[in-house]
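S1.2 Input.
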Amino acid sequence: MSGFFDGGDCLRKLTDYKPTKFMAEDAHYDKAAADYAVGFIECLCHTKGTWAGKPFDLIDWQERIIRDIF
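S1.3 Output.
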């Protein structure tokens, strides 16, 4: 399973985000709030195991889920 946790293409960062088309009619996408949430999560660090002390690094599908909340 080469490339899975070694920085390969499957760990690419989300470069262009478009809000989900399944939003409620009165909902709106708040880019500033989404940026803040993603930034906050990526400031957190793992506390145990192999990655202890290393920051969370969201990959594209994880970041998309966080952004869809906002």
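S1.4 Remarks. The radius of gyration is 14 Å.
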